[in-house]
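Record passed on here:
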Amino acid sequence: MQGGGSASQLFRCDDGNLYVVKLKGNPQGDHILANELASYLISQQLNLPVPKLSLIEVDKDVITSIPQFANTKLVDGLCIGSRFLDDLYNVVVPSTSGIMKDCKNIASLPGMYVFDTLIQNEDRKPEHILISGDRNGNSLFWLIDHGH
């Protein structure tokens, strides 16, 4: 997966699930991890559709065993991971697909604007709103990437 500015990575964790993990020492700084955690806690209070966030312990062996990490400042330790949606649903596409209006949770959309104002999100773009479809043909939108 392409990790964007924070060089996030897709990891299968001990619980068997896939997570998009933002690592310590990432190019955007460690404050991105704190921003993700604070944003997640606020999103839960607003009952917004945000993938489950978990604290992920990344061992030094993982960092040193991945060739693309060789010349980076990434370090081991406690990181932030968001549950990978494609592991839960059969389709995930950016919201630019035009199907957002059919999402079953569209009533949460005004809350997204309140949320972005509260966290002073300067990085909301179509790629940060994903549309997923479940096995019954229902679609949902999800907010991701709240590091900024």
Q: What stands out?
A: Strands lie at 9-12, 18-24, 53-58, 75-83, 91-94, 129-133, 139-143. The two ends are 20 Å apart (CA to CA). The chain has three helices and seven strands.
